Amino acid sequence: VQLVQSGAELRNPGTSAKVSCEASGYTFINYYIDWVRQSPGQGLEWMGRIDPEDGNTNYAQKFRGRVTFTADASTNTAYLELQSLRVEDTAVYYCHLQGGVVLASGAHVYGMDHWGKGTLVTVSS
To answer: Nearest CA to 59 among 30, 86, 81, 28?
Structure first.
């Protein structure tokens, strides 16, 4: 499994940033993607989750109204859009995939747990 995230972004306060995460290597089933961020000198912060197969989302209370998760199941790509950016949103944003894959034999294997390498979003005027 490979998770490839989009490149670093530099944004002004008040604008928005959109980060993508493309999963490849297998056909994925019963899987979901969490978005997690890490601000400088801080620990990991869970932002929420999306089920790419049905589009259902669950946002952390802190980010509701300001973040949107979407997914394109045909390309196995998930997106995070964070609006009304603040300087304190400067962080590395990670996608985290958990779920199952279909092997070439047709067998289903669960327990996949993979992280993207992260996307640095810098918010600065």
So the answer is: 81
In the prediction, which pLDDT does 118 show? Answer: 98
For residue 19, is pLDDT > 90? yes
Q: How many residues does the chain have?
A: 125
Computed on alpha carbons and rounded to an integer, the radius of gyration of the chain in Å comes to: 15
**Looking at the predicted structure, is the pLDDT value of residue 62 above 90?**
yes
The vertex-10 CA angle with 13 and 39, nearest 5°, equals: 80
Could you tell me the strand order of the sheet in which 2-5 lies?
2-5, 17-24, 77-82, 67-72
Which amino acid would we find at residue 37?
R
CB 91 within 8 A of CB 121: yes
The pLDDT-based confidence of 73 (bands split at 50, 70, 90) is confident
Q: Is 68 exposed, middle or buried (0-12, 13-18, 19+ CB in 10 A)?
A: middle
Contact 7, 72 (CB under 8 A): no
Q: How far apart are the first and last CA of the chain?
A: 37
